[in-house]
Amino acid sequence: MFDKLKAAKEAWEKGKFVLIHDFKGRENEIDLVIPSYKVTPKHIATMRRDGGGLICVTVTHEFAHEISLPYMRAVLAMTSHRYPAISMLTSHSLPYGAKSAFSLTINHVDSFTGITDIDRAMTIAELGRIHKKFENGELKGKELLREFGDKFRSPGHVHLLRASPGLLRNRKGHTELGTALAQLTKQPQSVSLVEMLDEKTGKALSLEDAIKYGMEQDYPLLTGEEILKLWKSIFKIPSAEFKK
Questions:
Q1: In the chain, what are the domain boundaries?
Q2: What is the CA radius of gyration of the chain?
């Protein structure tokens, strides 16, 4: 596992993707993942061509809390009393038993439509740089909120994912796995990710095909089990702290 962690760290330092498989009993999907501040238009092109799912960007619970960035489910709950359709739609739960990590959607204020490779890379990389400044203590409170508000508009074409407080203690989605891997590799903790889909089957790309793809592209692949074990071991987190 530690060899895989080293490979992931080296890949991200070189601006390459890392593949993350969550859990067979969960989504059972593989995401292409890379630190947000490193994202370029070429990365976006690869994500939409070789991934094909929804291109998203994560923020930590601490970042979201600092600027009061809500989960989308909270926004919808606050408006459901006025809009019956929202009330009906939000009454359903996810089939794999987890709460959604989705927050707002954003575009960089300097983007045009927001959907092009250049526009989405601009949005994601700028968010990554702001998040990095927050982690380094260079931005906080009102200054962070002002920077965030000055650089982005909403709605947009990039989906924000808000990591759960406690990360893998409370939720084990790709949002938390990517954030945990960023911690383990000493990278800024905002990552960009996209699900890998299979046009032949119409389903998610299989783990076997993802392993083959990773070998062809020289992208390391880590499973949720591996990241969870590494995270618990390196940060010495007791198993009792994890939500069952």
A1: 2-236
A2: 18
Token pair for 171: 């939720």
Residue 87, token pair as written in the block: 């009330």
Q: Are 89 and 193 spatial neighbours (Cβ–Cβ below 8 Å)?
A: no
Using the structure block, give the residue that is written with the tokens 């969870």. Answer: 228
- The class of domain 2-236 in CATH terms is alpha beta
**Among candidate residues 166, 163, 188, 161, the one with its CA nearest the CA of residue 176:** 163
Do residues 21 and 224 lie in contact, with contact meaning Cβ atoms separated by under 8 Å? yes
Residues with a known catalytic role: 31, 56, 96, 107, 157, 195
Residue type for position 124: I
Which tokens belong to 217?
């592209």
User: pTM of the full predicted structure?
Assistant: 0.94
Question: How far lies 143's CA from each of 62, 130, 160, in Å?
Answer: 15, 11, 20
The identity of residue 222, as a single letter, is L
Q: Note down pLDDT in tens along the chain; length 244 residues.
A: 789 999 999 999 999 999 999 988 888 999 999 999 999 999 999 999 999 999 999 999 999 999 999 999 899 889 988 998 988 888 887 776 667 899 999 999 999 999 999 999 999 999 999 999 999 999 999 999 999 999 999 999 999 999 999 999 999 999 999 999 999 999 999 999 999 999 999 999 999 999 999 999 999 999 999 999 999 999 998 887 877 6
As a whole number of angstroms, the distance between CA 197 and CA 204 comes to 4
Give the integer Cα–Cα distance in Å for 32 and 181: 13
Per-residue DSSP letters for 88-126?
HHTT---TTS----EEEEEEETT-SSS-SHHHHHHHHHH
